[in-house]
Write a sequence for this structure.
């Protein structure tokens, strides 16, 4: 389950070379809906799991809100952060979503915050701050900001004369990209943290989870994104694609959508077997797989200082959630 989500980050990073973030989000929703149907219909028909396709009005509207928060807001922020930053930075920052879940559960459902949760949140915030300061360490390549402008590497910034206006502008731009990547990653994490709370409220309203909820979420997300694309008349592709690039794009889209659908199905099955808390704890290890895949497939490097910040961030998530294992 965690590995499938970790691999999604790497696949999407490659897709963003050819497709703009919001259209990519839209296209992946289409593939994910097809993959979910291919998985959930047989699972339901052959009684592999106890979830059917039922829904009621309150649960329907909770899922509508959850879908807009998850797919339109959180995933759009996530794609933009991936476009501007590296997987080994975006993955650990977005892994703070369980902490956001705790906060929103407190606000919307009255759930109590444990001392361990507060401690974990403090540790994770420290990790995120360090990532924002050290994210340029060990960069194999330098990625431009969202608008595509190229940011000079740190070495070039350091070597530039004090009076060099262009170099000073590059430093400011680099800092802007750093803040932008972390801020977008945190926005994605907050949206992903709110989504499960709304889903739980939907399950409580209906009395049980259902496969229809998963499909509804993807469908509403696809429609919201499609409407936004039509309204803004957004371009789909970043460049003209030849036949080879088009074929690669199709295969990567199929991989991304299928991995997302696989994660959703496995998440429900894991919750059924060991409960939501353990499932979330396992899911929180996804950045480890994303970082490893980024190093192997994207040739990203992880400096010693940045590795410490990543471990600190993930350690905070573990502290915040692990105490519930013994409840």
């Amino acid at each position: 389950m965690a590995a499938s989500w970790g691999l999604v980050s790497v696949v999407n990073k490659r897709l963003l070379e050819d497709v703009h973030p919001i259209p990519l989000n839209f296209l992946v929703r289409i593939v994910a809906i097809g993959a979910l149907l291919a998985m959930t219909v047989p699972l339901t028909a052959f009684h592999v799991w106890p979830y059917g396709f039922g829904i009621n009005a309150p649960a329907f509207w909770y899922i509508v809100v959850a879908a807009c928060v998850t797919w339109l807001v959180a995933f759009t922020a996530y794609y933009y952060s991936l476009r501007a930053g590296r997987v080994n930075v975006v993955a650990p920052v977005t892994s703070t979503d369980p902490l956001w879940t705790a906060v929103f559960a407190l606000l919307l459902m009255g759930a109590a915050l444990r001392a361990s949760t507060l401690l974990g949140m403090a540790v994770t915030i420290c990790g995120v701050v360090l990532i924002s300061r050290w994210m340029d360490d060990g960069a194999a390549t330098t990625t431009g900001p969202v608008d595509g402008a190229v940011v000079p590497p740190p070495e070039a910034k350091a070597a530039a004369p004090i009076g060099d206006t262009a170099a000073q502008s590059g430093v400011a731009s680099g800092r802007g990209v750093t803040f932008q990547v972390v801020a977008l990653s945190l926005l994605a994490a907050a949206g992903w943290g709110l989504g499960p709370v709304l889903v739980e409220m939907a399950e409580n309203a209906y009395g049980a989870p259902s496969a229809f909820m998963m499909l509804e979420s993807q469908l509403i997300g696809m429609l919201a994104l499609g409407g936004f694309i039509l309204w803004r008349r957004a371009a789909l592709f970043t460049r003209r694609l030849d036949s080879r690039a088009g074929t690669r794009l199709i295969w990567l889209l199929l991989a991304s959508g299928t991995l997302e659908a696989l994660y959703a199905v496995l998440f429900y099955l894991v919750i059924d077997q060991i409960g939501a808390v353990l499932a979330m704890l396992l899911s929180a290890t996804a950045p480890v797989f994303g970082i490893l895949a980024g190093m192997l497939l994207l040739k990203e490097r992880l400096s010693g200082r940045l590795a410490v910040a990543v471990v600190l961030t993930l350690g905070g998530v573990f502290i915040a959630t692990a105490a519930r294992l013994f409840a």
Observations:
- Residues 165-206 form the longest helix (42 residues).
- The radius of gyration is 20 Å.
